[in-house]
Structure formats: C-alpha cells, structure tokens
Amino acid sequence: MRIPSLKPEKPCASPPLFVVSPHLDDAVFSCAALLAAHAGARVCTVFAGTPADKRRTPWDRAAGYDDSTQAMRGRWREDDRALECCGAQPLRLDFLDGQYGPLPDVDALTEALNVEFGLARGSTLVVPLGVHHPDHVRVGEAWVALLRAGLVASCIVYEDAIHRAAPGAVAKRLAALGAAGLHATSLDDTWSPERLGARAQALRLDGIGAYESQLRAFGAGFPADLARPERYWRVART
C-alpha cells in the first residue's frame, strides 16, 4: 500500500459530485484529480457485486486472486484506500462484472442509477463516456437513457481511461451522442490538469497506485494511458 503524501482538500462549497464508475478502479483511473479537487464526492461503482459461487477467470488470476470471492474482497479494500486518498466516499451496487456473467439490461441499470442519484439530492452527476469495454458501454447506455427520459437535465462526462485508447472510440461515441439528440461541450478549459492543481495531481497518483492487483494484472502491458490528462464534457439534450 502506498502512503499518500498529501491529504485531499476539504469539501468544496459547490454541489458535491455523484460519480458513476463501471468497475472498482475506473473513477480513480479516469478522474482521480477531479475527485481530489472536489473532496466529499460519492463514487457509485456499478459492477461491484460478488458471485454467489466462486468463479475463476483469467483476469483475476493475473491479478493474483484464486477466485471471484477473493478478488472482490481484495478489490473492495483497494478501492477503499484509493477513494480515501481522493477524499471520496464509496457506494457500491451489486451488479456482476461482465467477466462473471451476463450484463444487466439497460432498463435495470437505468432504474438503479436513477434511484441512487435521486437520493443524492443537489449533487452533480458525473458519468463515463462509455467506450470500448462492454461494461462501460452498458453504463453509457444507461446514463443516455436517463437524459433522454428527462430524469436528469445534464451531466458531466469523463473520458474512460485505458479504453479511450482504442482507435476511434472516443470520436465514434461523441458522434453517437450527437445522433441521439445530445450535445457535448468540452470542459478542458475548466478542468484541465493545470486548473485542478498540483495537489490534485499528486493525490491522483496515490489513488491509482492503490489498485495494486489491477496494475499487476496488466503486467508488462502497464497502460501508459493512465499518464494522460483527464478529459471532460458537459452533455445535455439539444
């Protein structure tokens, strides 16, 4: 475990963030500096459930776990440490990671997110763009459904670390949002690394380092993409 060299900022006066994370690492991998700069955020991880029976997958073995039960326990602990680094609080749904079985349908996921976000009154919704990985794509479909149904007026969208590196994935997704009647406005000038500050950037590195098992699973293929700046858009209906 890496010991953070800095403490997160005190909660901001602006509305708290409600950040949707597909897996137990995506929010920190993708927007840890944002979390650290807006301490007090709630991170809602969608695929955080543990299978009733022990399952063995290549990814979990590469991460150093014997089975799904051991893996999820370990990943929860890592996530606790990472979110503590960033001054964020965990909220975990019990949907299963796609490596363990079929994904939930869009309606079920949309309903769950609507309920949880509804309980976080006054918060700003922050969601993944939803590219490349099937689990991320499904979460992306759910928040689009929230917007198109008028259940939320707008949201902040972060670029999915690692998966954004798939050729053409980001451009294709932004085009699809436009075709669905949604307008995306870049927030690079608002939440650039320089504006978020050196303190948030340092805490970002501590948060990412807390996911030791997931970084281990990448092995020699450690994703250089994690060093790229965070990127954001505001998305609303046109």
Automatic annotation (TrEMBL):
<dbReference type="InterPro" id="IPR003737">
    <property type="entry name" value="GlcNAc_PI_deacetylase-related"/>
</dbReference>
<dbReference type="InterPro" id="IPR024078">
    <property type="entry name" value="LmbE-like_dom_sf"/>
</dbReference>
<dbReference type="Pfam" id="PF02585">
    <property type="entry name" value="PIG-L"/>
</dbReference>
<protein>
    <recommendedName>
        <fullName>PIG-L family deacetylase</fullName>
    </recommendedName>
</protein>
